[in-house]
Amino acid sequence: MPAEPLTIVTAMAIALLAGVTRGYCGFGFAMLVALGLSGFMAPVEAVPVALLLDLLAAAGLLQVAARHAHRRVLGRLVLGMLLAVGLGVWLLSRMPAAPMRMVIALLSLSGGMALLCRVGRRDVVPEEGRSATAGRWAIWAGGVSGLAMSMASAGGPPLMLYLLSTRLSTAQLRGTAIVFFAICSSCSLLGLGLSGVLGAGSLVWVGWLIVPAWLGNAFGQWLFHRAGPISLRYTVAPLLILLSLWMLLPINTP
């Protein structure tokens, strides 16, 4: 067992909640898992687990997501991500645990606050089928998201803030986010593996958490198709803010 039973149960609950969030919204899984796991393990251990779970848990969503993803925007996002992901991996492998934990919490808190303030202008859906605007910013958005993702599993808010400024439909937005994060997680894990950060301990944790992540993912996807989309103001933003504030409390500093 990788830890005490109570710790494992807590981690499973985090993976389940993060799975529901990503299955419903299309993003947020890796960030929520990294935030939660960083409460009882070093970020250099938590981030690889979060990224690997994110990639495996997305497997059931990719086929549908790929059909709806906006190819031109996705291509530019991936290009920006590839230019930045190496720096994020380097920072994660070099920074001490305490500062990195603070970085993860502050990035997630900033992202939650930004989503809370931003999404009021466009809760969820523009007109279905309209093409994206502001495409020239996609490379920058992909770079910032890739850097935050590989360094702290916090790439969700930068990407979603960009996508919410476009005229993508809800299905296109969600599909583009899911495919982008699958590619980003794969590249980050490759870099972490080459740098020696991804080890056997990460795989043990993934074995414990993959089933709750899959179950949450399936339930979140069911909710999305049954209940329809709800503003990120009432879903992802509050979770990010609460978990970030919890991480910043002195009792969670080793």
Main attributes of the structure:
254 residues; mainly alpha
Short description:
It is built from eleven helices and no strands.
Q: What about the largest sheet?
A: none
Q: How large is the radius of gyration?
A: 17 Å
State the end-to-end distance: 22 Å
Portion in strands: under 5%
Mean pLDDT: 81
Q: Helix content range of the residues, please?
A: over 70%
Helical region count?
Answer: 11
**Overall 3D form:** globular
The count of strands amounts to: 0
Structural class by helix and strand composition: mainly alpha
Describe the oligomeric state of these chains in a short phrase: single chain
Order of helices and strands: HHHHHHHHHHH
Contiguous runs where pLDDT drops below 50 for at least 5 residues: 119-133
Topology readout:
Layout: H1 5-25, H2 29-37, H3 43-57, H4 59-68, H5 71-94, H6 97-118, H7 138-152, H8 156-163, H9 170-194, H10 200-227, H11 236-248
Helix pairs in contact: 1-2, 1-10, 2-3, 2-11, 3-9, 3-10, 4-9, 5-7, 5-9, 6-8, 6-11, 7-8
Molecular structure report:
By secondary structure, the protein is an all-alpha fold. The protein is built from eleven helices and no strands. It has helices spanning 5-25, 29-37, 43-57, 59-68, 71-94, 97-118, 138-152, 156-163, 170-194, 200-227, 236-248. The longest helix is centred in the last third of the chain and has 28 residues, at 200-227. Mean pLDDT is 81; it is low at 119-133.
